[in-house]
Amino acid sequence: MAFVRSLLGTKKTLSRSTSAAPKGFLAVYVGESQKKRFLVPISYLNQPSFQTLLSKSEELFGFDHPMGGLTIPCPEDTFINVTSRLQ
């Protein structure tokens, strides 16, 4: 958790992307059945509400994520609602 707390980044608008994550951003896959890829600022890793989403992901997947990247198992609208409060 200390590693997560030490990461810093600029807060930018949440976006969906299919390319590599730019510096300062983290790609996550969100959804229950059909997953969508989002780029989020790494500064979100410090936020308690985002950490809650990460904890749910850890409980469900551990370190074996089916998409090959970080997968957050919640509805897309819930994810957008949580992250929109962080901007």
Automatic annotation (TrEMBL):
Matching InterPro entries: SAUR_fam
Keywords recorded for this protein, A-Z: Developmental protein, Growth regulation
Family: Belongs to the ARG7 family.
Protein name: Auxin-responsive protein SAUR24
Biological source species: Cardamine amara subsp. amara
Lineage: Eukaryota, Viridiplantae, Streptophyta, Embryophyta, Tracheophyta
